[in-house]
Write a structure and sequence with these properties.
Elements (H helix, E strand, L loop, with lengths): L3 H6 L5 E3 L8 H9 L4 E4 L5 H14 L4 E6 L5 H9 L4 E5 L4 H9 L3 E6 L2 H9 L4 E5 L5 E2 L6 H12 L4 E4 L5 H9 L4 E4 L13 H9 L5 E4 L12 E4 L2 H8 L14 E5 L3 E4 L11 E2 L21 H19 L5
Parallel strand pairs: 1-9, 2-3, 3-4, 4-5, 5-6, 6-8, 8-9
Antiparallel strand pairs: 7-11, 10-11, 12-13, 12-14
Helix pairs in contact: 2-3, 6-7, 8-11
Length: 332
Amino acid sequence: MKTKLCKALGIDTPIILAPMAGAVTPRLAAAVSNAGGLGNLPLWIADRQTIETTVREMRGLTSKPFAVNLNMDFPQEERLSICLDEGVPVISFFWQDPSPLIQKAKDGGAIVMHTVGDAETAKRSVESGVDIVVAQGWEAGGHVRGTVATMPLIPAVVAAVGETPVVAAGGIADGRGMAAALALGASGVWIGTRFLASEEIAIHPDYQQRVLAQAETDTVYLENLFDVGWPNAPHRVLRNSTVAAWEDAGRPTSGNRPGEGEVIASSPSRGNVVRYASATPSEDMTGAIGALPMWAGQSSGLVQTVEPAATIMEQIKNEAVAVIHNLTPLAR
């Protein structure tokens, strides 16, 4: 299954791993790259040593292409320079306008991706030099850029950007979703929630089991409930006790939320974690794990088994091919 996204990135399968902060490490990202997709490392708040160490670890695990994700709501010029010095082949920008850094990334030899939530932003991104557009639908887990669902968003973005490859993100967890995205004009898919049930994911077992147990109706879109570190940053998580208590209290604003400041978990790496902190439940955390933000998209209802990342990749690809093949006679 080769698309123009594959040609642009030098990969074999048009699947990009979502850069889930606190969950994706080089082990998972490299597994996706080695299986023919594009691993994506979330390094947008990392210091120099962490970036250098992580990228070098990644290179020790794979010789295939990979990306580093940088959130433009934070200063990223220095991090971009470090990534380019380390020879990162793909830079994935997110949230705010990346145009001030696009040419620097391209001059440094990187392919540039940018995640958008509407067609107009996609068009401006391409005009600024972005090579690949990631169109993220409202169904997505974690930080959600736009308010349009994936189904109407993808064809609108494809029409807006011409020949530029478009990657569909949000609500895709199997080959049926991948086939649908390709039918809408996308050249590939961006998948996060399905990989929460990969063997290589670095999350607490309770988090993983919660994902496996959820239906498509068990996530909630929130404007600013969890303190993600920058303003106006909507996000989608599994509904849990923290969300329920906040809703029962009438959805009060920050400073008036129930249990605010209460320590609910801890870990050797993060220390004490208070309620509403943007703390992905890591493997080493103890405490009220179920009260922490468990980022997940509406595709969680499709996630039912834990598999190696390579197996997940193969399953999605094979199912997509089968779906497309089965639909072909209908077009005759």
